[in-house]
Structures are given as C-alpha cells and as structure tokens.
Amino acid sequence: MSWLPGAQQSVFGKWLQRIVSPYLNLFRIIPPIGGIIDISPIVAILALNFAISGLSHLVLLFL
C-alpha cells in the first residue's frame, strides 16, 4: 500500500491494515536490512505459504 499515494488513508486501506496488522506484527521483530528495507512482510508470506502447504499435506495424508 505504500507504493500507491493516499492508499493507506482510504477506507479500503484502513480496512486492510486492520485485518493484516495483527499478523504482520508477529514478524516486526525482524530488524530492517540496513535500516531501510523491511523484509518482515516477505517472511510473513513465506510462513503463511509454509503453513498452508503443511496443512494441505496433513489433510491429504488422512484422506
């Protein structure tokens, strides 16, 4: 949302931030690289992808 000017202040931006912030805050403990680049969203997406993949394999294992 930071790439689009004014998107964070829109109704959709505020709604999306309210939904996503609790999950992203779990990964905010990772310090930014060089003090500039925040990789916590990338780590959060990878963790979510890993969890979904693991759950789907468990479901297929028991079917």
From TrEMBL:
Q: Which keywords does this chain's UniProt record carry?
A: Membrane, Transmembrane, Transmembrane helix
| One family name in Pfam for this protein | CCB3_YggT
User: Does this entry carry the keyword Transmembrane helix?
Assistant: yes
Q: Which residues cross the membrane?
A: 42-62
Where on the tree of life does the source sit, at the highest rank? Bacteria
Family of the protein in this entry: Belongs to the YggT family.
- Tell me the protein's name: Integral membrane protein YggT, involved in response to extracytoplasmic stress (Osmotic shock)
Origin organism of this chain?
Leuconostoc gasicomitatum
